[in-house]
């Protein structure tokens, strides 16, 4: 079986983990601060606040950026549920806009329509899905025009760039995930990045039970902290992130070259002036059920990211989102299949994937 994802853990991570274990400083520790500084520096942001996972990082980012109970936050329904759940955790209200057919990202034209329909929308949570940057020129124009609080969900896009600028540097705050399937990992883990001193200070307070001085609590906070062990892994992984991303891009190029010309298969699109870091390599097929059974049978791992728009998830239907219908999202959700693209793939794995996919016949 060629897996859909596999983390690569090297000597640097193993040595640091052993060092942390032997030091006995297993929870907060020096590596957490070092990792925060290193990851913020990598993206060119002033402040990094490490968190226990990408979901808690998103919750922190939204709260610290000023999203409050009752606020409406526009977002995409074509994502992992954590994106809009983090809005709900704030007591805020997700409002969904449709996505673009080629990039799967939130569509600036539909953002404008939704903003025109509802002048109460205060926030915008964008997701750079599969490693592909959103259309930031158009989005920043809307953010200014409508005075929106912009938060970037960068869980799938470490190191991605829009016109030479790293994603995660456009909004008031950004959130990253370091889950093992991501472009780099800390096991579980996440990070809030921001250039705004006040947002950073607020996130730092909230991540640690609202406390600056031990056992004194200024506000209702959380235990969303990253551990020293996780940060140790993150430091080792960060050294390799550029190499991991380069490998992902090469693998994607190999797949796109090998799979071109199949009339039943639509390849991923890389927008001009963007560095797409291929967290996922996601194709569109008409006969998806048949195709994925075939992949399963041939030992090719795959993923369906995602089988339902967020507003069709049972929890969202119960919250009253059942009546929504966004046509592009609903069209894409029926067709998407992610193929392995991770940096642990060998040349032989890639050749096998190409051969197996080319041999599929949707008519049979
Ligand atoms: C787009 C997106 N947002 C948020 C998250 C949440 O991250 P985590 O799983 O680390 O909580 C993920 C991760 O799966 C994700 O893909």
Q: List the total number of helices.
A: 12
For the biggest β-sheet, the strand order reads 1-9-8-5-4-2-3
CATH architecture of the largest domain: 3-Layer(aba) Sandwich
- The share of residues in helices is 40-55%
Compute the number of strand runs.
Answer: 13
Q: CATH superfamily of the largest domain, called what? A: Type I PLP-dependent aspartate aminotransferase-like (Major domain)
Question: Residue-averaged pLDDT, rounded?
Answer: 98
Classified by CATH, the class of the largest domain is: Alpha Beta
User: How many separate structural domains?
Assistant: 2
Order of helices and strands: HHEHEHEHEHEEEEEHHEEEHHHEH
Tell me the Rg in angstroms. 20 Å
Description:
This protein is an alpha/beta fold and 364 residues long. It folds into two domains: 11-237, Aspartate Aminotransferase, domain 2; 241-359, Aspartate Aminotransferase, domain 1. The chain is built from twelve helices and 13 strands. It has helices at 11-23, 30-43, 54-64, 82-89, 108-117, 136-146, 197-206, 228-259, 288-297, 314-321, 327-333, 347-359; strands spanning 47-51, 72-75, 93-96, 121-127, 149-153, 161-162, 165-166, 173-177, 190-194, 265-266, 274-275, 281-285, 336-339. It has a seven-stranded mixed β-sheet with strand order 1-9-8-5-4-2-3, sandwiched between helices. The protein has a three-stranded antiparallel β-sheet with strand order 7-6-11, with no helix packed on it. Strands 10-12-13 form a three-stranded antiparallel β-sheet. A hairpin with a 2-residue loop joins strand 6 (161-162) and strand 7. Helix 5 packs parallel to helix 6. It is globular, with a radius of gyration of 20 Å. It starts with 10 loop residues before the first helix and ends in a 5-residue tail after the last helix. Bound molecules: pyridoxal-5'-phosphate. The site of pyridoxal-5'-phosphate has 15 residues, from helix 3 and helix 4.
């Amino acid at each position: 079986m060629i897996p859909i994802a596999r983390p690569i853990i090297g000597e640097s991570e193993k040595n640091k983990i052993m060092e942390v274990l032997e030091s006995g400083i297993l929870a907060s520790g020096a590596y957490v601060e070092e990792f925060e500084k290193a990851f913020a520096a990598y993206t060119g942001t002033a402040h990094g606040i490490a968190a226990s996972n990408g979901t808690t990082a998103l919750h922190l980012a939204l709260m610290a950026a000023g999203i409050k109970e009752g606020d409406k936050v526009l977002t995409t329904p074509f994502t992992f549920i954590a994106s809009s759940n983090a809005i709900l955790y704030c007591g805020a209200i997700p409002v969904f806009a449709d996505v673009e057919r080629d990039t799967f990202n939130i569509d600036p034209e539909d953002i404008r329509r939704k903003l025109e329909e509802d002048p109460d929308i205060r926030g915008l949570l964008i997701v750079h899905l599969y490693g592909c940057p959103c259309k930031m020129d158009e989005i920043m124009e809307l953010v200014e025009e409508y005075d929106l609080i912009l938060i970037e969900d960068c869980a799938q896009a470490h190191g991605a760039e829009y016109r030479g600028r790293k994603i995660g540097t456009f909004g008031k705050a950004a959130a990253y995930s370091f889950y093992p399937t991501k472009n780099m990992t800390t096991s579980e883990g996440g990070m809030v990045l921001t250039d705004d001193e006040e947002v950073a200070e607020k996130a730092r307070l909230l991540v640690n039970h609202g406390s600056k001085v031990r056992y004194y609590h200024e506000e209702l906070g959380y235990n969303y902290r990253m551990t020293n062990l996780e940060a140790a892994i993150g430091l080792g992984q960060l050294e390799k992130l550029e190499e991991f991303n380069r490998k992902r891009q090469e693998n994607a190029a190999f797949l796109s070259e090998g799979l071109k010309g199949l009339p039943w298969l639509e390849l991923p699109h890389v927008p001009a002036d963007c560095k797409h870091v291929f967290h996922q390599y996601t194709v569109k097929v008409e006969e998806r059920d048949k195709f994925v059974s075939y992949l399963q049978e041939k030992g090719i791992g795959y993923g369906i990211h995602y089988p339902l728009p967020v507003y069709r998830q049972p929890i969202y239907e119960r919250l009253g989102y059942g009546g929504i219908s966004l046509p592009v999202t609903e069209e894409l959700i029926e067709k998407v299949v992610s193929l392995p693209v991770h940096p642990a793939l060998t040349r032989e794995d890639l050749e096998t994937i190409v051969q197996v996919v080319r041999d599929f016949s949707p008519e049979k």
